[in-house]
Amino acid sequence: MGSDELRSEYRRYTLRKTLFIIVCIIGSVVAVGLSLSSGKYDIGFLESYQILFDHIAGIVPMTPTEVMEDYVVWDLRVPRSIAGLAVGAGLGVCGAAMQSSLKNPLADPYTTGISSGAALGATLMITLGISLIPHLGGELAIAINAFFFSLIPAGMIVFISVFKKTSPTSMILIGVAVTYVFSATTSLLMLYAVPEDLTEAYIWAVGTLGKATWDNVPYLCVAAVGGIVVMQIYAGRLNILALNDESAVSLGLNAKRLRITILIMISVVTSILVSFTGTIGFVGLVAPHMVRIFIGSDNRYLIPASAAFGAVLLLASDCISKSVGSTGLPVGVITALIGGPLFLLLIMRQRRSAWG
Amino acid sequence: MDDAKVQLREGYHRYTFRKILFIALCIALAIIAAGYAATLGAREIAFFDVYRIIFDHIGGMTYEIGSIGWIDDYVIWNQRLPRILMALVAGAGLAIGGAAMQSLIKNPLADPYTTGISSGAVFGVTVALVLGMSFASSISQYGIVLNAFLLGLAPVGVIVLVSRVNNASPATMILAGIALSYLFRSLSTLLMVSTDADTVAAAYLWQIGTLENASWSGLPLMFCVTAAGSLFLMFTSRQLNILTLGDESAKSLGLNADNYRVLCLVLIAVMTAAVISFTGIIGFIGLVSPHVVRSLIGSDNKYVIPASMAFGAMFLLLADIVARTVIAPSELPVGIIMSFIGGPLFLYIIIRQKREVW
């Protein structure tokens, strides 16, 4: 095989993957427009881009209608769109990295027990009013509770791993054990809660993007962008980790330490996202799987593609969830309702398994 | 030469002795726990009397209606025994389902619900509670049971279809199970967020699982299905062992991996659905019992299957005893107690275990 032939084959290999990422990014730009134009106040699809660019360019709205439209787009809808992109991308990346580093297709960003910790923290605040920081109430207290509690299970995994040789399986199982204890505590709290508190805690756990404001969007963005950048840097090493630990060692990698490092980073990013939105499911688990079916399991492409695909999946679902019913529906429900059958179709159509 | 043979035999005896001892210990403990569980309740009946009353009843002894013996017999046989038997059968069924599932799809995170049974069943129950729709003619207790059972089987049906169209590899089945779980769970959530707070509480309670509603009426079905499934899995434990080696090895040893896997999957689904449609989603036991057993006696399925069964039965019964006594006279859902005891225990076993069983 000549070197030209080799080169053109490599180009074909990368072209498909790059194309997929570009399509997803275009998709998310369209989704932003949809998200900005959907809602009670009627604003056209193209008009919403116009208003957005005008605001960024610093053009001051003149007429009362323009002021109103600027307010609706910039203050009400843009935060939610950004949150959708950030959370979708962040969960997609974390899911992909978790699956690769633990070598398990059932893993998702919450595998280390983050969702159970966050739910416990939030439920403590909602049902008993117990806050980690005294004299704090409302959404902020819930978010802070959720953040710190969600890091406890991952902390235990890391703590045990430092003292004992642990395989990916043991790490997963430690997470499972802690998850069960936390979930049981949450269930107990919910059983004795008044029905209204139970409903509130239940809805918190289902997750929503509706709580996004300009106050909390920066945290979400920092978490998501940080996650994507770090995981992209680690992508090559993730590929080695996904082989097996012996290969990793022979290639000069300390597999155990690397896995713990990645686990910590995934946990911090996911915890930040979860504490402001609740545990939005499906995206972190399924977006990477869908991407794998399209472009394979090479993490150098899987990571950015999962980010782009996760963003478009979550934001598009959020557009639908906003426009259904009078109060809207939890975005996780819509994501699963659309994504579930789609995922099933992809599984049926795929020729070879991306998991060997 | 003979010497070596004797040594080999002794080695094998040692190998099996420990495993059989473990199973015997679990069964003995389960019998003791059953006796203790039967003493719990408003009417005081002594520990040893319990066994006597049960044997007398089986022996066909009849009492004069209204006499003390008659009342004791009635309380033990009609009020306390169904719950104890249900705990044993449910624990055994879920644990064996978990053990088989983990071997079948070669994944330590698998449990009897991996194929989406629980989400299907929850959807069935939510439909019954929120919309009042049921496969049964009347929306009584049986409406909920029937809904849970039939919709619990729906995801597995789809998975079998998918595996016929595509392939029956473990990865495909896991992923199809994930897709279906999410689909059904989101449908349940959809119903939950659109209903009133009291219905949410009722549906939520069903999801945690409890043995409170045990009665003789549900037991025969549950017992027969679990017994049939367990016997099949025990007799084919060799095939399960082969399957964990990999599909290629299985083929070269003359086992049609895909067909066997699908068969077991359906079997586990029917078994699990039969259990949870009466008890609700009891978590933890199906996932953790096999892990506890493996870390104590190794992963030879010939022993893991019966040992998981014995351990699961014992563990669920013990948890139920705690659930009934800890805040007596009212009680907690058994699923919560199991997680509280089992979680730390499980953590300890993971930390202690020396070699990797997966």
Please give a structural write-up:
The complex is a heterodimer of chains A (356) and B (358). Chain A has 356 residues and is mostly helical. Chain A contains 14 helices and no strands. Chain A has a single domain (3-349), classed as ABC transporter involved in vitamin B12 uptake, BtuC (Orthogonal Bundle), CATH 1.10.3470.10. The longest helix of chain A has 39 residues, at 64-102. Chain A starts with a helix and ends in a 7-residue tail after the last helix. The mean pLDDT of chain A is 86. By secondary structure, chain B is an all-alpha fold. Chain B has a single domain (86-352), classed as ABC transporter involved in vitamin B12 uptake, BtuC. Helix content of chain B is 77%, strand content 0%. Chain B has 14 helices and no strands. The model of chain B has no long low-confidence stretch (mean pLDDT 85). At the A-B interface, helix 6, helix 7, helix 12 and helix 14 of A face helix 5, helix 6, helix 7, helix 12 and helix 14 of B.
The CATH architecture category of chain B equals: Orthogonal Bundle
What is the number of helical segments of chain B per DSSP (H or I, 4+ residues)? 14
Calculate the mean pLDDT score of chain B and round it: 85
Stated plainly, the CATH topology of chain B is called: ABC transporter involved in vitamin B12 uptake, BtuC
Shape of chain B: globular
What's the number of helices of chain A? 14
